[in-house]
Amino acid sequence: MSLNLLKGKKGIIFGALDEKSIAWKTASKCFDEGAQLVLTNAPVALRMGEINKLAAACGNAPVIGADVTNMDDLKNLFEKSMEHFGGKIDFVLHSVGMSLNVRKNKHYTEMNYEWNQKTLDISAMSFHKVLRTAWDLDALNESASVVALTYIAAQRVFPDYNEMADAKSLLESVTRMFGYYYGIKKKIRVNTISQSPTRTTAGSGVKGFDGFISYAEKMSPLGNASGEDCANFCAVMFSDYTKMVTMQNLFHDGGFSFTGVTQAVIEQMEK
Question: pTM of the full predicted structure?
């Protein structure tokens, strides 16, 4: 059911790969709520994924390839988006992350530091580059909303999440710092959403994921939040109903983040 939360708004969605992607679900939800969209991902992801199918379902939204670590690519993305929209942008979703050390099964205590630099650049500093590009081009409307997806491993230890925990910590710091400056400049909101473990193509590649998602379900009073639930939350964050929310890390995890233990976990441990 559409409430027209985003009627007349224009946004850029980073990171939609396939129908499992939170970015994909968010784009669909935002379009249903009345938004106009531009979709973007890395050139290699555009070749691997099915983003053209999403674009067709979202009113033939333009698909503009961009390497999030490349400032020229980002400049081109924002300029072409504003040209397409005929004006500035109201919201941006950053749903980007990649770890070479995780992908290549390097233990945290033995990480390859060259790979680590790429992980931090793609998964965290890319958010700074996105915000910096929008800042330099004055590409965002007043009271625009920018959201990045993160995970509670930025605050707590989840061994198999590896170096991505460091990347998410940096991502959240960038959110606070840029949120401060953007708030003063144009009342623009910058937040992160810390989502439950979700069966995306990327998330499923983390070692021990199936066991952990089952554990998180038992540890969450409301259960794990689905990708569709996260898309709904993103739409609210892009709407005018959250104009005073900024610089926050918002846990969207069914209560997992503030639960010490549940009866279901105790019973499982006692078996």
Answer: 0.95
